[in-house]
Amino acid sequence: MNNEFEQDELEKDEIEDSEKSQGKMVKGSAWMTIGSILSRILGAIYIIPWRLIFGASLFPLANTLYTMGYNIYSEFLTIAIAGIPSAVAKEVAHYNALNEYGVSAKLYKKGITLSVVTGVVCALLIYFCAPILAGSGGKNAIPVIRSLAWAILIIPAMSLTRGYFQGFQQMAPSAMSQFVEQLGRVIYMLASAFFIMVIIHGSWVTAVTQSTFAAFVGAVFGFLALGWYYWRRRDHFQGLIASSDNAINVKTNDLYKEIISQAVPFIILGSGITIFQLIDQYSFFNIMHWATNYTNTNLQYIYAIFAANANKLIMIVVSLASALAITVVPLLSEARTKGDNHSISKQLSNALILFEFVMFPAALGMAAIAGPINRTFYGTANMDLGADVLTFSAIVSISLGLFTVVTALMQGISENKRAVKYFVVGTIIKLVTQVPLVYFFGAFGALMATAVGFTIANYLIIHSLKREFGLEIDDIKTNSVKILTFALITYLVALIVVYGANFGLGLIFNYNSSLISLFVSVLATAAGGFVYLFLVLRSRVADRVLGNKMKSVRRLLHIR
Which stretches are tagged as biased composition: Acidic residues (predicted)? Predict the structure, then answer.
């Protein structure tokens, strides 16, 4: 009898731990999702006034130049950050689980020193190597690339501080500083572009250069926001350090080794999407010159459509996956430290289902409103090609988002080397398929090669996770089928609303205008979103993903 009682208590504790862990992940995901989405939306909305400031003739060239500079900057920034924030978040969670908060604080201080060094080195490299890195951008790209060196100086330290907060599973500071950073960047971008192009009628290259320099301005504001959060919570952190067991004494050199050993795989995996974008940037023009008679200006227009325009919008969707990825790493690290394989398996399954729950409707919804949303942001120039590319990109974004999540899962359970190996396989596939696919399908070919490369890498990683830790396959399959079905219904509803609104409004207005297109996009998104919300609440899928709190949401909306 006692054994049965003890067994029941043990099962109850396991359920409570599982629900608590799921609750932490959902809460953390909510904060990171809000921060990421708001930042991405800001990073997309600025395009509308920015496009109007440059005008129809200069905007495609300015957008291409901006994108080329930012792709290079993203890779150097990833190297400068060196994966240290995520590595520190993982290690801080590890030591916190052992009640060694003093070691966590020491780890952060040493990480800051390392971040400053890598920031300075990479900033100098990108500044002096700008003429070599300019590539197809020519001399116009040199000042743009150099302007981004300033941001690389301070962003690594800022990102590390975010990682420290995340190690304590405090996601709000990271989310809010991310939003403040983006807000400061966008305000400076638009103000400087307006002043140069409209007030003094200056050079469009100078305006683009100041728009990229805005990354530094935004970083300053983001860092200040983090400082404010730390100042408010300093007593809490100091109290945790004072109550540490202090049973572990880690030497400085060992701390650096620990950070670097964790960080190197993060460099490769963290820059996975950027590496694929750079493959496009440095190969697309050469392949298309070989396959067509297009001029370099024509190719810049096409490149801007898939690499800049569509990519900027789908990254709003992919940022959802990034938010999930950042949240799950400390939780998995904590479970790994405790040797709790059952919890690891549960969290892996929860993370994949949560990814599908958010990503499937978001990606298909973006595909449904591709026409009006593309016109809203980029006008009517090449609008048919732009809408088709955005539709295809939205579907491809599922593989990009999944890669972000599954590599974070591998890192959270210390399977970094294996994740890197699988990414290398995916990159080789991208390189092998790039030439024939771009040759025959142009911009769509580049997206196809990206989808194939990431899909293979994702399959290898998920298969590895299943083999080593086990996944709740039946649960994942059951929920995946329901989520995909609901997402497809959402897609159809949004698509019907788009066509219906275009027809109805087209009788009175020009439905190709940016304002009407925005209205149609919002209307279709609201309709599709409502249908998806109703379906996941009615079917209880929302309860499985987000927990029992969905019961109160159902009561509020009178859904049985």
Answer: 1-17
Residues sharing a CB contact under 8 Å with residue 483, sequence separation 6 or more, in sequence order: 353, 356, 357, 360, 361, 536, 541
Sequence-separated (6 or more) residues with CB below 8 Å from residue 441: 448
Give the residue among 69, 442, 452, 426 at the shortest CA–CA distance from 287.
442
One-letter amino acid of 277: Q
- Does the pLDDT of residue 79 top 80, yes or no? no
d(Cα 194, Cα 206) in Å, to the nearest integer? 12
pLDDT tens track for 224-244: 998 888 888 778 778 877 777
Mean pLDDT calculated for residue range 451-473: 90
Q: Which of 301-321 are b and which e, b meaning 16 or more Cβ less than 10 Å from the residue's Cβ? A: bbbbbbbbbbbbbbbbbbbbb
| Domain range list for the chain | 27-269
Two tokens at 435? 């030439």
- The secondary structure of 459-481 as a DSSP string is HHHHHHHHHHH---HHHHHHHHH
Distance in angstroms (rounded) separating the CA atoms of residues 558 and 560:
6
Helices (H), 338-415: 341-368, 370-378, 383-412
Q: What is the pTM of this model?
A: 0.77
Tokens of 451: 């989808």
Rounded distance, CA 318 to CA 298, Å? 28
Nearest by Cα to 338 from 14, 8, 11: 14
CA gyration radius for the chain? 24
Q: Band the pLDDT of 201: cuts 50, 70, 90.
A: very high
3-state secondary structure of 82: coil
| Helix, strand, coil share of the chain (percent; to 5) | 90, 0, 10
For tokens 């293979």, name the residue. 456
CA-CA distance, 521 to 528, in Å (whole number)? 11
Greater confidence (73 vs 451) lies with: 451
